[in-house]
Structures are given as C-alpha cells and as structure tokens.
Amino acid sequence: MVKIGQINTLKVMREADFGLYLDGGEFGGILLPRKEVPEGAAVGDELSVFILLDTDDFVVATTRAPMVQVGEFASLQVVEVNKIGAFLNWGMPKDLLLPYAEQRGTLEAGKRVVVGVYVDNSDRIAATTKLDKLLSPPPQDLKVGQPVELLVCRRGDLGYSVIVDNSYWALLHQKDVFRTVRIGHKVQGYIKRVVDGGKVDVVLDKPGFGKVDELSQRILDDLAAQGGVSPLGDKSQPEAIYQAFGVSKKAYKMAIGHLKKLGRIDISPEGIKLLDD
To answer: Conserved virulence factor B-like winged helix domain: which residues (predicted)?
Structure first.
C-alpha cells in the first residue's frame, strides 16, 4: 500500500517522454518526473521515492528526501507566515504548511518550531504543534537500558519533555542532564525506568554498568598514556570529566569504582593511579 508523505519502494511500470510511471496500487500510475529519474532506471526496477500531492492535487513521486516524513516529529524553521498559516522549510521545493488551527503560540519567520507531520482529510501533508494527538501511550515491553532516539521538545520544572522514537512522551530529568541539551535536537538516549501510570523516564547514558566495560578500557588507556596517573577522580568537576571522556560524572565514577574493585587502579583525593598487574 502506497503511503502519502512517506518514502515508498515502487516498481517502474512504464516509461514516457516526461518521466517514469511507478506502480502506485490504488493510486494507479504515479509519475516520477524525468528530471528526477535516476540514471539507468528502467521498467521493472524498484525505486525508493517520496510520495506527495503536487499543486494540482495529483499524487506524484520524487527522489528528494524531506527532513521529516508523515508520522515523524522534527524542529523546522519558519519561512513565512501569512493569512493561511505558517510555512516551514522541510527540505522540499514546496514549503510545509502549518495551519493556524494547528498552531500554539505566535510564530514568526526565522524561528524554529517542533512539529509533527500528518496527512489531512484532503490527502495533503501538513504540520501541527499539537503533538499529543499524533502520539501513543508507551509500549508495554520497554526494558531498562533499551536504546532509543529522543527529540527534545520543551523544558519544564523537572527537566525536558522528549518524544521517544517518534512514538510517545518521556521525561529527561534535569539531574540526568550532563551536557548541553537544546530544544529541537535529536539525541541518543536510553530507557531509565517506567514509573506509575506508564510514564517513562530516559537518560543520555546507559543505566547501570552497561557502558562501564568500554569506558573502563578508555580510562586505562588514558592512564597508560599519562604515565599511570590522572587528576580526574571522583571529586573532579563534571565538565572536566565530560571534556575528557564525553560521559557524565556518574558514569565516570561507576567506571573507576569498578576498576578499583578489580584492583586495577587506586582512587585518592588527588585523582586516580594505575596499579601494577
């Protein structure tokens, strides 16, 4: 089934002077204009194309890839605001409409806004800032430590509200933020826990000892390169730790604590020291 507003893999049905017609199922032949046809494409080939409506409301294909597809969320820049609504740059020749009815707050050209993308009743692709209606409850089979993609949407008293895997809300607590987090950015994260009521907490570092083995080896390598000593201990500033290893102070302390238990290092107020094997 062909999905408007998404990338589809379609077979070439026939060739015409002005392009290729792709098998669009219920939509019939979908035109891929000649200027978009990949070199060497022929009847019977399967092509990866984005499907949308043109200015005359015909379903057409393009080999251009947008910044965001239907069912996804992204931070997009406002190009223009007029009597119809706001128009957003989404990497396509025709800007994406954010209707007034789908807006929250005042928008102006040059600003960025987090939106979800959907298909309206006339099969046109549009954007909305009313994100809740496009999101679902968290799945029941989430596991602690599971890797996920996070879109940072807004900041509150407890931390950042994030969209997980283009699917559901979660909270990134302020106490778990160890580096710069910006609204609209997509970052790698991990499931921290599922709390009462099905709410989900996430973190930027893998919980528990999941990352310790890799990080521990990096610490040992760094110690060896510095003659066996390092000023970075369990009392060091989080910024210094992150600058050196790109991890939170909590993750670093877990790693050096593990190395100490293994008898590989000694920890003192002055830092850490590599012990003889």
So the answer is: 217-274
Question: What sign has the CA pseudo-torsion 217, 221, 224, 228?
Answer: negative
- Tokens describing residue 147: 């890797």
CATH number for the domain that contains residue 107? 2.40.50.140
Residue 59 and residue 53 in contact, taking contact as beta carbons nearer than 8 Å: yes
Q: Is residue 36 part of a domain?
A: yes
Give me the domain span that covers residue 96.
73-132
Asked if the structure places residue 248 within a domain, the reply is yes
For the full predicted model, state whether its pTM sits above 0.85: no
Please count the residues of the chain. 277
In which residue ranges of the chain is pLDDT below 70? 208-213, 277
> pLDDT, tens digit, for every residue of 125-150?
999 999 999 999 999 899 999 999 99
How many domains in the chain? 4
pLDDT for 224-238, tens place per residue? Answer: 899 999 999 999 999
Q: How many CA atoms lie within 13 A of 56 on its CB side?
A: 2
| Identity at 129, one-letter amino acid code | T
Cα distances (Å, whole numbers) of residue 126 to 54, 114, 115, 258 = 13, 13, 10, 51
Task: Kindly give, in sequence order, each residue whose CB lies less than 8 Å from that of residue 68, ignoring residues fewer than 6 positions away.
Answer: 74, 76, 90, 115, 117
